[in-house]
Amino acid sequence: MKKSFAWVLLFCFLYSCNLVDTRRATVFITDKDYFQFSKLYSPDSSMILINYGIDHGAFGYGHAGTAIVKPNDTLKDLRQFTLPNTFTDVKWIDNKTAIALYDITPDLRSGSISKISDKEINGIKIVVKANDYISDNFKRKIEHSELSPDGKNVLVAFRYTDGTTFSPIQISIISKGDSLGKYGNFYIGTPQSDYVLNATWNNSNQLIFYTNQFDSYMIQYYLVDARPAIPYSIVIDDKKYGGKYLWTE
Description:
By secondary structure, this protein is mainly beta. Helix content is 10%, strand content 37%. It has 2 domains: 5-131, no CATH class; 139-241. The radius of gyration is 20 Å and the shape is elongated.
């Protein structure tokens, strides 16, 4: 099935929102490339959460972050009032407090320790919670498990789901007989797309990732830094995977 035009538009929007804009030291709402995703007033309307980005032209809108401003701050440089792009789903708790989710998946890929602590911006306390896109009621679902030809390692692709909502795909390579960790040790996808849409071993005990032309260049960005030292190659198959954004058998 070919990817419909509507799906292409939706995917482009979701992907562009996931980009981090670091080009500009200052951002004003009067800038020609400024783009506002959403605006949310505090209960008493004294403060505003502005979720904004920068227009990258053909590459969509890079998400710059969420600014917390007073109404008369809106004509000032938004950078000084902005939570970084790693903080998502920022919402008001009350007039002086907001809550934000800190996306820990980049830290999981890099092996960094997530630095989660409450923040304060423009007199507003930001309560920060860790987010790995795996809710408490999610159960692990194995999408694919395959022993390598030499019998030493197992390729396991899995995600977490409640049957309706899905976490990003996780891919691990574990020694035969070892238990599977919570997170993928080779690859961790995104909420926008799995990018890797199937995988297998070749006869040389190396990995093959299947994807489509649209997604193929993104795979490199979501590999785990300290992954097992197993070579991988990417096979593009638009006939089978051109209309997909989640792993499929």
